[in-house]
Amino acid sequence: MDNRILECVPNFSEGSDPEGIGKITAAIQSVDGVRLLGVDSGKATNRTVVTFVGHPDAVVEAAFRAIRQASTVIDMTRHRGEHPRLGATDVCPLVPVSGITMEETVGYARQLGKRVGGELHIPVYLYGHAALKEERRNLSNIRSGEYEGLKAKLADPAWAPDFGEAVFNPLSGATVIGARDFLIAYNINLNTRSVKKANAVAFDVREQGRVKTEMGKPVLDGSGNPQRVPGSLREVKAIGWYIEEYGMAQVSMNLTNLEVTPLHVAFEETARKAAERGLRVTGSELVGMIPLRCLVEAGKYFLKKQHQSAGASEAELVRMAVRSLGLDQLTPFDPSRKVIEYALASAGSPDLTRLSLRDFCDELASESPAPGGGSAAALLAALGASLGTMVANLSAGRKGWEDRLEEFSCWAEKGQNLKDQLLALIQQDTDAFRQILRAKSLPREHQEQRILREQAIQSGTEASILVPLQVMQLASRCFELVEFMATRGNPHAVSDAGVAALCTRAAIQGAFFNVQINAATIRDQPKAAAWISQATTLVREAETFEKRVLAQVNQRINQP
């Protein structure tokens, strides 16, 4: 099965015509296998950023149709906007998301570029990892002079397009297509209207920095080129601009390597540099979508800065990041639309973990065989991990234990991670059982059909063993957390640690029942025996653990 996922984030030079933008997005959605994740328009920039994902072949087809549609609804001779641009489809990057290498992504970018240049007669430049010339790797080099300077640029043999003819297309301009790593377009709000001051802050932080001057003149190096004073943030591009719609200036950034400069680091450093110039950062704005991990990391950073435990739930970490970064200052920030993983999940099939507690119990109590005991066992394990995490957080916040904040915060983070993994298994257990049911409904009139049906049943049965086995393995990893909290955690929450131990033990025993019943029907009995042996060991360890922890809990509860 081909599970490759490619993302495309085209930027169109239109931000105020809903009908035209709608035609472009409709062209994208006309391709099967593509999911539209976001449409972000700005009137002042007169620009729309669209995000969609899917199988690489489908994404490339959708990108071509979008570029073709943009060439019919956008007239660059009339375009005005704050953002630099070269054409109707200004830039069209392809970004590897899952199961696809950068090398493969480059191939798709060049394939798209060749088709746009050949069929649509739009000059195409390749940038980023797809660039054919080193000087074209940087997008700003290609876009210098913008649309207004494009005619002269095309007349220069050094700037002949990579695809298409070197002929100026006044209506569509040129398009830049490339392959790049994940990039975040991020604007930081300042309490000023001055573009000059915003630019000063941008030059302070961006990697390129500013030109070094003396007596108001550039300082040149031995080759006659201007020397530069580098900024404080690596892998960051930035400029200052004024947005009339908001009545404020912003530092507009592209964060091109999130491992080098994460979102919260860019925000904090910009705030520091702004303060040095007598300015204040009032909030920020995300253009397009963002990976979940960026907000989770930011949430943890700001919690630690406040001397609180970073072992909060994912939802709370996201809320903390949104509040601390001021992402909702200008417009409401909806994580379900702005976070890639949430947008994908909401567009997919229903998830049991998103049901209310009552709805989940009603579903469990229905005549449907799934969800059943396996999903309940995974939930019990998640409850055990959650209770252990709660005790860790209560311990981290206990008065007089300030010197142990980091210790308990680390435990809480481990517990949150285990909880999230176990919650995912609630749905996976039900999916595995339904896989068996679907397999049993396959036709079996002919020998070949019977073979395929049996293979599908065996595959589903293996999944129905491996998922509860994983529940047992993850639950056993909760032992250390729960026991530490029972023996050394906040004494006022020791009863909660006891309940956590009971949940963990019950989850392991319950999941073991599922391993046993499904292992009995698998054809590869040696493999099944190995899984049973592994699971049996985990059950015995759980029994020992439960006795030890409950004894400690009873001792601490009954202490005078």
The tally of beta strands, per DSSP, is 15
Broad CATH class of the largest domain: Mainly Alpha
Distance between the termini: 63 Å
The count of helical stretches stands at 17
Name the beta content range: 5-15%
Radius of gyration: 28 Å
Q: What is the percent of helical residues?
A: 40-55%
What does this entry look like structurally?
Helices cover 52% and strands 14% of the residues. It is globular. It contains 17 helices and 15 strands. The strands form 4 sheets. Strands 1, 2, 3, 4, 5, 6 and 7 form a 7-stranded mixed sheet that branches. Strand 10 (213-214) and strand 11 (217-218) form a beta hairpin. Helix 1 (18-29) runs antiparallel to helix 2, helix 2 (56-73) packs parallel to helix 3 and helix 8 crosses helix 9 (314-325). The protein starts with a strand and ends with a helix. It has 4 domains: 5-179, 2-Layer Sandwich (Formiminotransferase-cyclodeaminase, Chain B, domain 1); 183-288, Formiminotransferase, C-terminal subdomain (Alpha-Beta Plaits, 2-Layer Sandwich); 289-348, Alpha-Beta Plaits; 350-557, Formiminotetrahydrofolate cyclodeaminase monomer, up-and-down helical bundle (Four Helix Bundle (Hemerythrin (Met), subunit A)), CATH 1.20.120.680. The protein has helices at residues 18-29, 56-73, 102-119, 139-143, 150-155, 195-205, 263-276, 292-305, 314-325, 335-338, 340-347, 357-365, 373-396, 405-440, 447-488, 494-519, 525-557, and strands spanning 5-8, 11-12, 34-42, 47-54, 89-98, 124-128, 175-179, 184-190, 210-211, 213-214, 217-218, 228-229, 236-243, 248-255, 281-287. The chain is α+β, with helices and mostly antiparallel strands.
